[in-house]
Amino acid sequence: MSPKLLLLLFLRRWHARIGFAAVVFFLFLAVTGFVLNHTADLGLNTKYVHAAWLARWYGLMPELPRQAFRSGGHDLIAANGRWLLDGRISGEKLPQPVGLVDLPGMVVVASSTSLYIYGKDGALIDRLESNALPEVPVQAIGAGAQRLVLRTASGLFESSDALSWKPSPRGATAWSAPAELSPAEREKYAGLLDAGISVQQLLLDLHSGRFAGRYGPLAVDLLAVLLTVLSLSGAWLFLKPRHRRWERH
Amino acid sequence: MSSRTRRSLALFTLMLGAASGYARGEVYQEPDTFIAEVFGSKPAPKVLWLTKDTQAQVGAILGHAPAQLRQRYWSEGGKSVWILEETGKEELITAGFVVVDGRIDHVRVLVYRESRGQEVRQSSFLKQFKDAKLVRDNRLDRDVDGIVGATLSVGAMERMARLALFFERLSHDNPAG
């Protein structure tokens, strides 16, 4: 048997073996790559995965809910950038709340630099950032004479609509204060407020191999080498017989 | 997974978080400054409440339900300013739209939080919106040229432009104070 034929047989055999061995990984890379390219179309760009094991895998130290804010039948528990307002998750990457106030027609949650105004049904009415507030940081919020009152370093400000603000006279204001959760409540809420990993990041880590830790990217590098070998051997197997036929003619 | 590896992954995650946090600080112009620049000083805000019907129309423009039910805006002398936010790829883009007589007068990207696609803040891109108005189905009367590598941010800017014009029209139908 000629050396060229031997080489051809060797390539064919190894092309098939490598292709078969890597098929699962290549499919995995193809699928994660495809989804990564279409995260927005698939509505995955704003989605998060919440699982205690995943947070542990990422080495994130979950924050346990310790306190609740309560006002007029509404309650708010926060941990890991998530809020549980009246038993309903309000979103991701939310700031640490400093208080909750129940007012006619709205429920207001304050962080040090923003106000979140919810309807009684929990729908977000408006989000006011620092530029819409009389001053930040907000130290506390409260209610006085059916008005929202903010306490800041330079004094008290009040508003009836969370749009226009005026200095508030020092009067009877019921300030929102956190209440400690019992151990049973902490346990109950911890599961609902698990730290989240964005789907986008998770896909990226899976695709790059980083999810598997230190050696994951090296494994993906190896797959890239295998893919290169497959491409070159495939090209060789495709072209060689044609080249031989061309030589004969 | 070893603790060292886990630390690396956590660090990487935190770095990404920090990167997005840093991007959050990428404020090209404070919304207040933008409003004051348009009117000379900042007028009192007005509000537009989104009814169920309006929410459906906003949903059709954005491709998702509106994030909030009350939209603040500023208007004076036939000119209105709309500060809107929309997700590009993963993070919100904040842009200011000045609308006069149902046409966009000018647009500015105020805060950009994505790690890529900042080109949408360039005037060469934004000038495409000059004098744009709404036509049938709340669409713009023109095609907006995209930017390679910033497709999603371009899409977000276009949606916000449509929304600003839609809100402006609505504010005439339902004047609020």
Q: Please report which band the strand proportion of chain B falls in: under 5%, 5-15%, 15-25%, 25-35%, 35-45% or over 45%.
A: 15-25%
* Strand order in the largest sheet of chain B: 1-2-3-4-5
Q: What is the total number of structural domains of chain B?
A: 1
Mean pLDDT of chain B: 87
Quaternary arrangement of the chains shown? heterodimer
Number of helices of chain B: 5
The two chains with the largest interface, and their residue counts, are: A-B, 31 and 30 residues
List keywords for this structure.
heterodimer; A: alpha+beta; 5 helices; 16 strands; 27% strand; B: 5-stranded antiparallel sheet; two-stranded antiparallel sheet; globular
Task: Summarize this structure briefly.
Chain A is α+β, with helices and mostly antiparallel strands. Chain A is 38% helix and 27% strand. Chain B is of the alpha+beta class.
Polypeptide structure, described:
The complex is a heterodimer of chains A (249) and B (177). Chain A is an alpha+beta fold. Chain A is 38% helix and 27% strand. In chain A, strands 5-4-3-2-15 form a 5-stranded antiparallel β-sheet, covered by helices on one side. In chain A, strands 13-12-11-10-14 form a 5-stranded antiparallel β-sheet, with no helix packed on it. The model of chain A has no long low-confidence stretch (mean pLDDT 91). Chain B is an alpha+beta fold. Chain B has one domain (28-173). Chain B is 39% helix and 24% strand. In chain B, the strands form 2 sheets. Chain B has a 5-stranded antiparallel β-sheet, sandwiched between helices. A two-stranded antiparallel sheet of chain B has the order 6-7. In chain B, a hairpin with a 3-residue loop joins β6 (134-135) and β7. Classes of the chains: A alpha+beta (249), B alpha+beta (177). Chains A and B meet through β9 and α4 of A and α1 of B.
